[in-house]
Amino acid sequence: APVAVLISGRGSNMQALAAEQGAAYRIVLVASDRPDAAGLAWAREQGLATFALSPKGIGKAAYEEALDAALREAGAEWIALAGYMRLLSDKFVARWRGRIINIHPSLLPKYKGLDTHARAIAAGDAAGGCSVHVVTEELDGGEVLGRAEVAIRPDDTPERLAARVLVEEHRLYPAVLKAFVRA
Ligand code: GRF
Protein backbone atom coordinates (compact mmCIF):
# COMPACT_ATOMS: atom_id res chain seq x y z
CA ALA A 1 0.00 0.00 0.00
CA PRO A 2 1.35 3.46 -0.90
CA VAL A 3 1.73 5.59 2.25
CA ALA A 4 2.76 9.21 2.76
CA VAL A 5 4.32 10.21 6.08
CA LEU A 6 3.79 13.75 7.37
CA ILE A 7 6.35 15.16 9.80
CA SER A 8 7.29 18.45 11.45
CA GLY A 9 10.43 17.53 13.36
CA ARG A 10 13.04 14.90 14.07
CA GLY A 11 11.05 12.09 12.46
CA SER A 12 12.02 9.13 14.60
CA ASN A 13 8.61 7.52 14.04
CA MET A 14 9.02 8.09 10.29
CA GLN A 15 12.35 6.24 10.53
CA ALA A 16 10.65 3.37 12.34
CA LEU A 17 7.97 3.25 9.63
CA ALA A 18 10.62 3.35 6.90
CA ALA A 19 12.51 0.44 8.48
CA GLU A 20 9.40 -1.74 8.33
CA GLN A 21 8.48 -1.08 4.69
CA GLY A 22 7.78 -4.21 2.69
CA ALA A 23 4.89 -6.20 1.33
CA ALA A 24 2.33 -4.39 3.49
CA TYR A 25 3.23 -0.79 2.64
CA ARG A 26 5.75 1.46 0.90
CA ILE A 27 6.51 5.09 1.74
CA VAL A 28 5.89 7.05 -1.46
CA LEU A 29 6.36 10.52 0.05
CA VAL A 30 7.65 12.22 3.20
CA ALA A 31 6.02 15.64 3.50
CA SER A 32 6.75 18.40 5.98
CA ASP A 33 5.23 21.78 6.86
CA ARG A 34 8.72 22.73 8.10
CA PRO A 35 11.34 22.82 5.35
CA ASP A 36 14.05 22.70 8.07
CA ALA A 37 12.70 19.55 9.77
CA ALA A 38 15.57 17.23 10.71
CA GLY A 39 13.57 14.23 9.54
CA LEU A 40 13.34 15.66 6.05
CA ALA A 41 17.12 15.66 5.64
CA TRP A 42 17.21 12.04 6.77
CA ALA A 43 14.47 11.10 4.29
CA ARG A 44 16.37 12.75 1.43
CA GLU A 45 19.54 10.90 2.39
CA GLN A 46 17.59 7.66 2.23
CA GLY A 47 16.42 8.49 -1.25
CA LEU A 48 12.79 8.84 -0.21
CA ALA A 49 10.66 11.31 -2.18
CA THR A 50 10.09 14.47 -0.14
CA PHE A 51 7.82 17.50 -0.22
CA ALA A 52 8.43 20.55 1.94
CA LEU A 53 6.25 23.63 2.12
CA SER A 54 5.55 26.11 4.91
CA PRO A 55 2.04 27.53 5.21
CA LYS A 56 3.64 30.79 6.37
CA GLY A 57 3.01 33.47 3.80
CA ILE A 58 0.63 31.49 1.58
CA GLY A 59 -2.01 30.58 4.18
CA LYS A 60 -3.47 27.30 5.31
CA ALA A 61 -5.85 26.74 2.39
CA ALA A 62 -3.20 27.18 -0.32
CA TYR A 63 -0.76 25.11 1.71
CA GLU A 64 -3.19 22.22 2.03
CA GLU A 65 -4.12 22.38 -1.67
CA ALA A 66 -0.45 22.04 -2.59
CA LEU A 67 0.05 19.26 -0.05
CA ASP A 68 -2.99 17.40 -1.36
CA ALA A 69 -1.72 17.72 -4.94
CA ALA A 70 1.73 16.43 -3.95
CA LEU A 71 0.18 13.47 -2.13
CA ARG A 72 -1.94 12.51 -5.14
CA GLU A 73 0.95 13.00 -7.56
CA ALA A 74 3.05 10.66 -5.43
CA GLY A 75 0.27 8.07 -5.57
CA ALA A 76 -0.34 8.06 -1.83
CA GLU A 77 -3.48 6.28 -0.68
CA TRP A 78 -2.82 6.46 3.05
CA ILE A 79 -1.35 9.12 5.31
CA ALA A 80 0.58 8.48 8.52
CA LEU A 81 1.11 11.54 10.72
CA ALA A 82 4.39 11.20 12.62
CA GLY A 83 5.06 14.20 14.83
CA TYR A 84 3.12 16.43 12.44
CA MET A 85 2.36 19.44 14.60
CA ARG A 86 -0.30 21.18 12.51
CA LEU A 87 -4.04 20.67 12.61
CA LEU A 88 -5.43 19.45 9.30
CA SER A 89 -8.56 21.31 8.18
CA ASP A 90 -11.98 19.67 8.18
CA LYS A 91 -11.90 19.86 4.38
CA PHE A 92 -8.59 17.99 4.16
CA VAL A 93 -9.72 15.37 6.68
CA ALA A 94 -12.95 14.85 4.70
CA ARG A 95 -11.02 14.34 1.47
CA TRP A 96 -8.91 11.63 3.09
CA ARG A 97 -11.64 10.28 5.36
CA GLY A 98 -10.61 7.04 7.08
CA ARG A 99 -7.19 7.11 5.40
CA ILE A 100 -5.19 9.19 7.90
CA ILE A 101 -3.72 7.82 11.10
CA ASN A 102 -1.66 9.46 13.85
CA ILE A 103 0.51 8.40 16.75
CA HIS A 104 -0.11 10.21 20.03
CA PRO A 105 1.99 9.90 23.21
CA SER A 106 -0.75 9.02 25.69
CA LEU A 107 -3.18 6.22 26.43
CA LEU A 108 -6.12 7.73 24.58
CA PRO A 109 -8.79 8.82 25.35
CA LYS A 110 -6.68 10.26 28.19
CA TYR A 111 -4.56 13.37 27.59
CA LYS A 112 -5.37 14.61 24.13
CA GLY A 113 -3.23 17.53 23.00
CA LEU A 114 0.15 18.54 24.43
CA ASP A 115 2.24 17.81 27.56
CA THR A 116 0.83 14.32 27.83
CA HIS A 117 3.61 12.79 29.93
CA ALA A 118 3.68 15.63 32.46
CA ARG A 119 -0.10 15.36 32.83
CA ALA A 120 0.02 11.57 33.35
CA ILE A 121 2.72 11.95 36.04
CA ALA A 122 0.91 14.83 37.76
CA ALA A 123 -2.29 12.78 37.87
CA GLY A 124 -0.47 9.94 39.65
CA ASP A 125 -1.26 7.45 36.88
CA ALA A 126 0.32 4.01 37.13
CA ALA A 127 1.06 3.97 33.41
CA GLY A 128 1.55 6.22 30.41
CA GLY A 129 1.96 5.11 26.85
CA CYS A 130 1.08 5.78 23.25
CA SER A 131 -1.86 5.27 20.92
CA VAL A 132 -2.36 5.08 17.18
CA HIS A 133 -5.72 6.43 16.09
CA VAL A 134 -7.71 7.37 13.01
CA VAL A 135 -7.64 11.11 12.36
CA THR A 136 -11.00 12.87 12.40
CA GLU A 137 -12.03 16.50 12.81
CA GLU A 138 -11.69 16.12 16.59
CA LEU A 139 -8.08 16.51 17.81
CA ASP A 140 -6.71 13.11 18.89
CA GLY A 141 -10.33 11.93 18.96
CA GLY A 142 -10.70 9.26 16.24
CA GLU A 143 -11.01 5.51 16.71
CA VAL A 144 -8.07 4.02 18.60
CA LEU A 145 -6.39 1.27 16.57
CA GLY A 146 -3.70 0.21 19.02
CA ARG A 147 -2.05 1.23 22.28
CA ALA A 148 1.11 0.38 24.21
CA GLU A 149 1.47 0.90 27.96
CA VAL A 150 4.59 1.97 29.83
CA ALA A 151 4.72 1.83 33.64
CA ILE A 152 5.35 5.15 35.36
CA ARG A 153 8.16 5.02 37.96
CA PRO A 154 8.09 6.87 41.28
CA ASP A 155 11.02 9.09 40.25
CA ASP A 156 9.83 9.65 36.67
CA THR A 157 10.16 12.93 34.80
CA PRO A 158 8.28 13.78 31.61
CA GLU A 159 11.56 13.44 29.68
CA ARG A 160 12.41 10.00 31.02
CA LEU A 161 8.88 8.73 30.51
CA ALA A 162 8.83 10.18 26.98
CA ALA A 163 12.03 8.34 26.10
CA ARG A 164 10.62 4.99 27.24
CA VAL A 165 7.29 5.61 25.51
CA LEU A 166 9.12 6.54 22.29
CA VAL A 167 10.66 3.05 22.15
CA GLU A 168 7.12 1.65 22.25
CA GLU A 169 5.92 4.14 19.62
CA HIS A 170 8.53 2.80 17.22
CA ARG A 171 7.24 -0.75 17.71
CA LEU A 172 3.55 0.09 17.73
CA TYR A 173 3.27 2.39 14.74
CA PRO A 174 4.58 0.09 11.97
CA ALA A 175 2.55 -2.83 13.33
CA VAL A 176 -0.69 -0.83 13.41
CA LEU A 177 -0.05 0.70 9.99
CA LYS A 178 0.41 -2.76 8.47
CA ALA A 179 -2.86 -3.97 9.94
CA PHE A 180 -4.70 -0.78 9.02
CA VAL A 181 -3.81 -0.78 5.31
CA ARG A 182 -4.56 -4.50 5.09
CA ALA A 183 -8.07 -4.16 6.57
C1 GRF B 1 6.12 11.52 19.17
O1 GRF B 1 6.19 11.45 20.55
C2 GRF B 1 4.69 11.37 18.70
O2 GRF B 1 3.93 10.51 19.51
C3 GRF B 1 4.16 12.77 18.82
O3 GRF B 1 5.24 13.59 18.45
C4 GRF B 1 6.46 12.92 18.65
C5 GRF B 1 7.17 12.87 17.34
O4 GRF B 1 8.47 12.37 17.44
N1 GRF B 1 2.98 12.93 18.01
P1 GRF B 1 9.26 12.01 16.12
O5 GRF B 1 9.31 13.24 15.25
O6 GRF B 1 8.54 10.87 15.44
O7 GRF B 1 10.63 11.61 16.57
Structure description:
The structure is a single chain. The chain is α/β, with parallel strands linked by helices and 183 residues long. It has a single domain (2-182), classed as 3-Layer(aba) Sandwich (Rossmann fold). It is built from six helices and seven strands; from the N terminus they run E-H-E-H-E-H-E-H-E-H-E-E-H. A seven-stranded mixed beta sheet has the order 3-2-1-4-5-6-7, with helices on both faces. Helix 1 packs parallel to helix 6 (158-182) and helix 5 (116-122) packs across helix 6 (158-182). The longest helix is centred in the last third of the chain and has 25 residues, at 158-182. The model has no long low-confidence stretch (mean pLDDT 97). The structure holds 5-O-phosphono-beta-D-ribofuranosylamine (GRF). The site of 5-O-phosphono-beta-D-ribofuranosylamine has 15 residues, from helix 1, strand 5 and helix 6. (6R)-10-formyltetrahydrofolate binds at residues 60, 85-88, 102. The record marks 140 as: Raises pKa of active site His. Belongs to the GART family.
CATH superfamily: Formyl transferase, N-terminal domain
Average pLDDT, all residues: 97
CATH class wording = Alpha Beta
Tell me the overall shape. globular
Termini distance? 11 Å
For the secondary structure, the number of strands is 7
- Helicity range: 25-40%
CATH architecture descriptor name: 3-Layer(aba) Sandwich
| Radius of gyration, whole Å | 16 Å
CATH level 3 topology? Rossmann fold
Each distinct ligand: 5-O-phosphono-beta-D-ribofuranosylamine
Pfam families: Formyl_trans_N
Function: Catalyzes the transfer of a formyl group from 10-formyltetrahydrofolate to 5-phospho-ribosyl-glycinamide (GAR), producing 5-phospho-ribosyl-N-formylglycinamide (FGAR) and tetrahydrofolate.
Pathway: Purine metabolism; IMP biosynthesis via de novo pathway; N(2)-formyl-N(1)-(5-phospho-D-ribosyl)glycinamide from N(1)-(5-phospho-D-ribosyl)glycinamide (10-formyl THF route): step 1/1
Family: Belongs to the GART family.
